[in-house]
Amino acid sequence: MTLEAHSTESAAENADSVLAALAVDLGGRVVLPADAGWDAARAPWNISVDQKPAAVATPLDIRDIQRILVAAREAGLGVTVQPRGHGANGDAAGCILVRMSAFDEISVDTDARTARIGAGVLWGTFLPHLDGTGLIPLAGTSPDVSVIGYLLSGGHSWFSRWKGLAAHSIRAVELVDAQGDVRRITAESDAELFWALRGGGGLFGVVTAVEIELFEAPALFGGKILFPDAVAETVFAQVTDLMTDAPAELSIFFGMINFPDAPFIPEPMRGQTFANVDVVFVGTAESAAPLLAPLLASAPVIADQTRPFTISELGQVAAEPEEPIAALDLGASIVDLQGDAVAALVGAFRAATPDGLTMMQLRRLGGAVSDTAAGDSAVVGNLDSAYLLFAAAILMGPLPRDRSLFSPLESALEGRTVPRSVVSLLTSGQTLAYAYPAETLRRLAAVKAMVDPGNVIRSNRPLP
């Protein structure tokens, strides 16, 4: 045996010993590769990502987190946090994967218009606490995503055109740093770390709670509108025209969807393709009607599910899957949809359909998202592009399972994209280089070196 091989074997034995001791010492639960339930414990939400951590730990309290950090240093391992498993990027090797489900605190101060939320809380758990208050957070589309994971990763919201990217709403972050110290980070206590936390992902500590700003919204209106596949170009063109001068309180996400021929899909929709428009408006149905009238008159409507709703019902608008699935995805930040771009995207979607493309969504930006002053206090800053695109293939059958199915979309987008997005919308294989320019990455790296020089804390989206 060579010296190098002996050293590697000794390191592995040491790590195994440390993790076995952690399993005994932790108040919460530790699952090791040889344990029953290992595959379920390590699985991310997108089960096509095969992450292989050294262990999975579920701490009960701050002391448990500190124990995990000590064990990681002793074993030569990293620590990565996935409250629910969204955004997993296959980079958990050599890490203790931490699930924060026990950190379930929720409190709302209606007078101050703030909320305090634990790291294990999902949007679907938190939002019902705001019904009847007239207050809303800058929540995203899925109730199954953790509040803190979404916020730390920037968070593009239904309300971003109105109030900016969601990370800007963070007012305080409580975390355990790589040295095991409990810290409360605000703009006053540590402006540079606060800047980095608001959109830099999970690079800087094990976050246990955040405090966020809430916004007055006495009325909400919206829902899903379905059109025939044949009129997709007309619908896309109408939405792009409509959103040119739309008020910031209106958000429209539009695209195309192929419903699978599966029992969980309502009978009339099974195996069918539709153009779909998802609408959220901060205001009343009466105020929304004249804004949406040109769209509804532009093409035959198969289903119009728009209605007044409460903030706890926000997830029903997009109606995204709430159970783990296997999927491939593609994201892009689009400069414009002028000329033949709309027709090219619709044609590309149809061309990729036989290979298993499930959906394509375009999100109109502008409004507060474009505020150039937004970068002063949060790394998430602003977005200058016009649209965010997200496409996905849900892997359900014997169709190709490689990224070549996105080739038609990538060709249609050639020359129209920029490498600047929101971390929460990055797709598999992408690092923070796809979200931030080089000078911002250097500043993030400087903060990382200051708070975690040993790189104990790892993230789904590493620095390049």
Fold topology:
Blueprint: H1 3-25, E1 29-31, H2 38-42, E2 55-58, H3 62-75, E3 78-81, E4 95-98, E5 106-109, E6 114-118, H4 123-126, E7 135-136, H5 147-152, H6 160-163, E8 170-176, E9 182-185, H7 191-197, E10 206-213, E11 215-216, E12 220-228, H8 232-244, E13 250-258, E14 273-282, H9 285-298, E15 303-304, E16 307-308, H10 315-318, E17 327-334, H11 341-352, E18 359-364, E19 387-394, H12 407-413, E20 417-418, H13 438-451, E21 457-458
Parallel strand pairs: 2-4, 3-4, 3-21
Antiparallel strand pairs: 1-2, 5-6, 6-10, 7-11, 8-9, 8-10, 12-14, 12-15, 12-16, 13-14, 13-18, 17-19, 17-20, 18-19
Helix pairs in contact: 1-3, 8-9, 11-12
Summarize, please.
It contains 13 helices and 21 strands. By secondary structure, it is α+β, with helices and mostly antiparallel strands.
Inertia-based shape: globular
Beta-strand percentage range: 15-25%
Number of helices: 13
Please state the structural category.
alpha+beta
Main β-sheet, in a few words?
9 strands, antiparallel
Oligomer: single chain
Could you estimate the helical fraction of the residues in percent? Answer: 25-40%
The stretches of 5 or more residues where confidence is low (pLDDT under 50) are none
Average pLDDT level? 92
CA-based gyration radius:
23 Å
Count of extended strands: 21
Question: What's the N-to-C terminus distance?
Answer: 35 Å
